[in-house]
Prior knowledge:
- 21% of the residues lie in helices and 22% in strands.
- It is α+β, with helices and mostly antiparallel strands and 337 residues long.
- A hairpin with a 5-residue loop joins strand 13 (284-288) and strand 14 (294-296).
- The longest helix is centred in the first third of the chain and has 13 residues, at 61-73.
- It is globular.
Amino acid sequence: MIGAVVFALPHILVRSEPTPSPGATAQQPLADDQPRPIMQAQVVLDRLGFGTGVIDGKEGQSFAAALRGFQESKGLAKSGTLDAPTRTALAEWTNIPATRIVTISADFAKGPFTPVIPRDPAAQAKLPMLGYRNLAEKLAERFHTDTETLIAINAPGTKIGAGLSIRVPNIGDAAIDAAKVEDAEWRTTLATLGVGTAQPGAERVVVDKSEAVLKVFDAKDRLVAQFPATMGSEHDPLPIGKWTIKGVSYNPPFHYNPDLFWDASSKHGKALLPPGPNGPVGVVWIDLSKPHYGIHGTPEPQSIGRAESHGCIRLTNWDAARLAMMVKPGTPAHFVP
């Protein structure tokens, strides 16, 4: 294929080339090639708004947290396991396979990509964007997973590119109502991340440090969504208290100020970094009334809930985009221990 770039990953050969448009994947027969009970539960929870972080078919703290959130929403005991009552509550979705086969469209496959992203902020500032490094990374975010999982659920020798097919986690198809999103670039971002415009409205947001999650409650005080989150550190603790959301910036550039980072190199100066999913705040910045604090995406979805932040609340790009469609200026955001 003209313009193809071939690179090797463990157990799989992946070909990245000019290729699909966000969400422009044609679904083929939904059938798992093998049982994947944990991934199936992750897929259903993700569809219901209880994010498990990276969908990888593994049990872990983010999966347990998602189960507790779902259990809380259903008035069940918060065991954090797939116990009998939880399986019963999830029974109506057991017909949803864990994976499906999709065909990559030419629009989606074409990028643009940013193959090399330097660590130095000054060097990043010279780039036109901080985009996905390759098609594999873009596909992984589209289906709320990581490249390692894509490798694991596909046969050795699988290739990716325009017109080719690949097995992916079976997240829901995101319907986008253009009338609800004036920003055309943001519509593209939503489609790229598999996030639809039909999201529940947030009456309040709670960032729970003890559970490492962000919870969304509606006007009837029902828990309608929950996402795993990384928040604060020893050097930049989560600012416990009652704040409000001031506004949302879609695909924002990032004003890097080394004075705000305890671990910044003394060689770094201020810099304006270009937007992109691999930027420091990912695809969205949700500004808070606490100065210099916000809720945002991340270039490293696998780190959510497992690493520290510089005080802000980090979500996967897809969860941050979903949250951005739920909140509005003035939405309360309570940070609790």
